[in-house]
Amino acid sequence: MKNKGFTLAELIGVIVVLGVIAVIAVPVVGKIIEDSKIETAKAGANSIIRSAQEYYANVMAETGKFTPVTLDLVDSIKDGTLEMEGTLPQGGTVSIDHDSTIQVYMIVDNYCIKANSNSDKVTAEEVEPNEEGIIVCE
C-alpha cells in the first residue's frame, strides 16, 4: 500500500524556505511602504504650495497688497484657509513672503518635509523628537 503525504523532512524544508522568503521580503516591503508615505507627504507639500499661492492671489486681488505671514499649517487646513491633498500632517508652518515666495515645513510621522515655491525640490529628513517628545521641523 502506498502512503500519501509528506515526510517530516519535506515539511521542515518547506518551512525553512518560507522563513527565508519572509526574512527577505518583510524589510523590502517595509521600505516600500515607508517610501510611499514620504512621497505622499511630498505631494501634500506641493498641494499646500498651490493652495498658498491661491491664498496670496486672493488677498492681492481683494486688497492690492500683501503683508508677509506665517500660518500654522494644521489650523489653516482645518479652518479652510489652505487646502491639502493627502493625510493631515501632525504640525508645521507655511510662510508667505511679500513677493509670493512660499516656504512649507511640515511634520509627517518622524519626517520633516520642506518645500519652497521657488524650487521643484521637496526634501524629507528623518528627525528625532526632542527631550519633551516634540518633533521640530526647521
Outline:
By secondary structure, the chain is of the alpha+beta class. It is 45% helix and 20% strand. The protein has 2 helices and 5 strands, in the order αβαββββ.
Question: Unreliable segments (pLDDT under 50, ≥5 consecutive)?
Answer: none
Helix content, binned percent: 40-55%
User: Globular, elongated, flat, extended or rod-shaped: what is the shape?
Assistant: elongated
How are strands sequenced across the largest beta sheet? Answer: 1-2-3-4-5
Number of strands: 5
Return Rg in Å: 24 Å
Number of helices: 2
Short key terms for the protein model shown above:
single chain; 138 residues; 20% strand; 45% helix; 5 strands; alpha+beta
How would you sum up this structure, described in words?
With 138 residues, the protein is α+β, with helices and mostly antiparallel strands. It has one domain. Helix content is 45%, strand content 20%. The chain is built from 2 helices and 5 strands; from the N terminus they run αβαββββ. The protein has a 5-stranded antiparallel sheet. Strand 4 and strand 5 form a beta hairpin. The radius of gyration is 24 Å and the shape is elongated. The mean pLDDT is 90.
